[in-house]
Amino acid sequence: MYRIMLVDDEPLILAGIASMLNWEEYQCRIVGKASNGHQALSQLEELEPDIIITDIKMPGLDGIGFMKEAIERGSSAAFIVLTNLE
């Protein structure tokens, strides 16, 4: 079972992504949600996600900074980046 973490500052986006698929049908489970990169980093070691779906533009620590820091901390998660940034 793949462990998924969702990271986005928009609560509707988090809820939408979480509910848009029957994740278990694809051998996935959402193990955590965070509203910015700082929150995500604080959960990263405990949750050990296999896949992280993140937004780019967020307050505090943005998605790019979060990905860099997660990799520096040894995360081997695959990242999927979603954005509405123009």
Low-confidence region ranges: none
Q: Summarize the main sheet.
A: 4 strands, parallel
Strand line-up of the largest beta sheet: 2-1-3-4
- Count of DSSP E strands? 4
Give the ordered list of helices and strands.
EHEHEHE
Mean pLDDT: 94
Strand fraction equals: 25-35%
What coarse outline follows from CA principal-axis ratios? globular
Radius of gyration over C-alpha positions, nearest whole angstrom:
12 Å
Determine the N-to-C terminus distance. 34 Å
**Helix amount, in percent?**
25-40%
Structural class: alpha/beta
Number of helices: 3
Give a concise summary:
By secondary structure, the protein is an alpha/beta fold. It is built from three helices and four strands.
Key terms:
86 residues; 4-stranded parallel sheet; alpha/beta; 36% helix
